[in-house]
Target: Alpha/beta hydrolase
Amino acid sequence: MNISNLIYSIFILFTVATCSIRQPFQLRETPPTITSEPIEKGLAPIKDIQMYYEIHGNKDGIPLVLLNGGGSTIEVTYSRILPLLAQNRKVIALDEQGHGRTTDRNAPVSFETSAEDVVALLKFLNIEQADIFGFSNGASVALNIAIRYPKLVRKLVFASSITKREGAYPMFWNFMKNATFENMPQALKDAFLKVNPDPKKLHTMYEKDAARMRNFKDLSDKDIRTVGIPTLILLGDRDVPKLEHAVEMVRMIPKARLLILPGGHGDYLGEAIMSQGKDRYPELTSALVQDFLDSP
Model:
């Protein structure tokens, strides 16, 4: 893989941490698939889009909502860990605006609008409270939900994301200026086209995600400190977000805990695009996340 492809991988999914760029880059199978069948799936009419969702596992108990990384389908981010999480709980997965099977609207994609879309989906599904696990861009969406709708979220897993531009290494932002659609890893293109075989929609998704990150705006410390629910800050030790940034978040959120796992961006999930491949990482991550969710 040439350096431009590697740069794009960092950009669109926060895939490879700045300090691990020199490591071999591994593509998982293309496109990834989820081994378990959903007990329910469909398109929910959410404002002016049709949002695709799946429900896996046990129908009883507090549901766990999974929010994907940028540029991703459900399968890209959660294909390996979703079946593990669904063994003991109800899991709801979804594609955000313009991603995968969810339709687009004539408006930019943003963390704020995606947060409102997820809230509307939970209302559509008659869910009054849920745990939310967001990865990368999905974590930014999840945090927006926790800030705006504190009664809706019981526990939050904030994985491999940032709340401020300074939370990522400067090289990340410099790379973004030169990222192009042509550099997008084929694994991501294939995963999108497998569920939505329209190249124009794929290109539009890329452009909107690119704009979302180029226009990234900091969350205020005041807003972050309003998060009063138990929160797990999760990242890899060679991730895109700085470890110092994660520590800062733990100090600001009263009930936050910090979990640092080996590897780069997405390694601990067994994501479709990884900087290194360890098949047992998803098992470890699932066990630790479920311990957090099940704790008092």
Summary: The two ends are 46 Å apart (CA to CA). Residues 3-294 form a domain with the Rossmann fold fold (CATH 3.40.50.1820). Residues 30 and 186 are 8 Å apart (CA to CA).
